[in-house]
Amino acid sequence: MARRRPARPRARGPRRGRRRRGRLHPERGGHRQRRRPFRLTGGAVTLSVAIIGSAGACGRQLAAQLLDRRTIAPTACLQLVVHHDGISATEGHGLRADLRDAFADDAPTIELVEYPEDVVADVVVMLAGSTLPSDPNAAIDRAGLAIGNFAVFREYADALARRGGPAPWVVVQSNPVELGVAVFAEALGPDRVIGAGAYSDTLRFRREIADGLGRRRPQVRGFMVGQHGDHLVPAWSTVAVDGIDTDALADWIGGQRRDRSLAGLPDEIRITRDALVARVGRGEIDEAFRVLAGCPADLRAAVKPFLVHCTAGRTTEMVTAHAVADLIGILTRGTPEVVSVQVALDGASAGAGAGLTGVGAIPVTLDHAGWTPAPVTLAPDEATALRCALDAARALRAQMPDRVP
């Protein structure tokens, strides 16, 4: 009997005798099927990007923002990843054509990808999966959402682990973000897996602070850490604002915090969110936003996304895509920046994650090589709330099945 040829680490196309399942072809821009390692050009890094869930509202917005910012070099590739037997496969053709018409002057190669094993980019963005209903009167099944999206996470994480070679960057923005980070970190290792939820929360937090102090967001520093959800942690101890002295800022922050505690913030978020979403359900939209405007800055940052989700007709697609585009921009620029993102901690981390295990958001120094904990120290109550957020993420992961059918 003839000896079998050893398997190649990455196949250029379907193996002999294997059914071709609608793989990439020239009409879909799929003439590059083998992953090319990123290249350094000066200080910048040329990276290809894949958007899983590209036909959704957030995926479309991200593709447009990346191309509009020229984040992806013309010599690189943007993979639009859709599901082979869903409506997104049909919509993907139109999306690719529309993007090429809009950005043809200096756009990268744009490919349409239908199968997880054909994702070969240097940076993989997870935007697929279900989201909460936008109907304010609809019942919310958070457990069902987590289980359904867990299966999507596992499918793509396993496919990326099988492809061989250096692990890609993975940026998770599908919910639950912490669950997605856990799944991809288990499959690929934690060094290049991050969640963008905390970066989105930080953008909102800084914006609310800037609004309250009559400043622009770039003048504000400070982080949201913890969970992208009820257990988010406003790290007030990290806040600084250009043009405002320490004492004046401390007085303003004291007014925002009042007699509220971080230990009670998760319940405060749930109560406020449910009350305001109920107002939207009754048609009291102006009143809901008016009441929200009177809330403290950290509570506004936590609750406003739900009002946007219920009134914008789809989801918080603008800031969701903006956050991911910012992070990919950091990776391609090659200049380290300190950001708050979800990461998988192993107990050996420094900074805000010192001694912690599990998935949660901390400030990290991010560049194309990986992430490292930033030298940021949290206040004692913030550190306690961060541990509670890690516990919540750990409990959710424990509820998921070991195997996906």
Describe the structure.
- 42% of the residues lie in helices and 18% in strands.
- By secondary structure, it is of the alpha/beta class.
- It has a domain at 38-196: NAD(P)-binding Rossmann-like Domain (Rossmann fold, 3-Layer(aba) Sandwich), CATH 3.40.50.
- A six-stranded parallel beta sheet has the order 5-4-3-6-7-8, with helices on both faces. It has a three-stranded antiparallel beta sheet with strand order 11-12-13, sandwiched between helices. A two-stranded antiparallel ribbon has the order 1-2.
- Strand 4, helix 2 and strand 5 form a beta-alpha-beta unit.
- The protein is globular and about 55 Å long.
- The two termini are 35 Å apart.
Q: Features of this protein?
A:
single chain; 405 residues; alpha/beta; Rossmann fold; 6-stranded parallel β-sheet; 3-stranded antiparallel β-sheet; 42% helix; 18% strand; globular
Summarize the SSE layout with pairings.
Blueprint: E1 39-41, E2 44-46, E3 49-52, H1 57-69, E4 77-81, H2 87-103, E5 109-113, E6 123-126, H3 142-162, E7 169-172, H4 177-188, E8 193-195, H5 197-213, E9 220-226, E10 232-241, H6 246-257, H7 265-281, H8 285-293, H9 297-311, H10 317-333, E11 337-346, E12 357-367, E13 370-373, H11 380-398
Parallel strand pairs: 3-4, 3-6, 4-5, 6-7, 7-8
Antiparallel strand pairs: 1-2, 9-10, 11-12, 12-13
Short synopsis of the structure:
This protein has eleven helices and 13 strands.
CATH topology of the domain at 38-196: Rossmann fold
> Beta fraction of the residues?
15-25%
Provide mean pLDDT, rounded: 90
Helix-strand sequence: EEEHEHEEHEHEHEEHHHHHEEEH
